[in-house]
Amino acid sequence: MSDSDVRPLVAGNWKMHGLKAGLDQALKVRDAVSAAGFAAPVDVMICPPATLVMVLGELAGGGRLLVGGQDCHTAAQGAHTGDVSAEMLKDAGATAVIVGHSERRADHGEMDRHVRDKAAAANRAGLSAIVCIGETAGQRAADLTLDVVRRQLENSVPDGATAANTIIAYEPVWAIGTGLTPTADDVETVHGAIRVALVQRFGEDGARMRILYGGSVKPDNARELMSIDNVNGALVGGASLKADDFLRIVGAYGT
Ligand code: PGA
Fold this sequence. Notes:
Layout: E1 9-13, H1 23-34, E2 43-47, H2 50-60, E3 65-69, H3 86-91, E4 96-99, H4 102-108, H5 112-124, E5 128-133, H6 137-141, H7 145-156, E6 166-170, H8 184-202, H9 204-208, E7 210-214, H10 222-226, E8 233-236, H11 243-250
Parallel strand pairs: 1-2, 1-8, 2-3, 3-4, 4-5, 5-6, 6-7, 7-8
The structure holds 2-phosphoglycolic acid.
């Protein structure tokens, strides 16, 4: 199994950004990736805030632009004020949901076991789970990166994960929103270790599961980052808010 057999994904995580007026950027992306001349072998997704998932789902209309959520509850429905279920996201037009982003782990105390249950909930609803893992600056300084990433992977990914229903996003916490990125060698080492762990646990599915890199992916560094072994796409925060920047990152895979 070579890397080129895995179809990459470039996903934009809008975080808590985006009013209706900002949808023009998503429409620009939709139109660019739907154009007849766009033949790049890459999936393209935008994960807007929950308030915009349904409208973007309708605007995307099942075409080439995929729509994702940013979090989901573990239950399908119930007395959980303010939460959104994976079934609701699916109903709104999403095909995937991010779970375990470091901002949710930090802001909402989410632990690996919560993340695993959310990923399983996503799969139950027919969504792909984009499971985020990554070390903090302190853990990196203490040389714990591979330990942390392996432990998060083991405990955050449910046993039922397949190449079709699960995507891993390696996002060093210190690289998110900072403009800092690991060296290409470091990314290769971590993604290689993730691949080994996935193959050990999931066999052929582990070999084909997509491993995204996230953390300060920009138009200027996308080509280098996306060319690293076992990097099968990107999870993009800040640079996904502007269609031109996001499309230049997608363009790392040709157009
Ligand atoms: P960033 O965010 O691209 O703004 O660093 C990435 C993420 O948090 O998914």
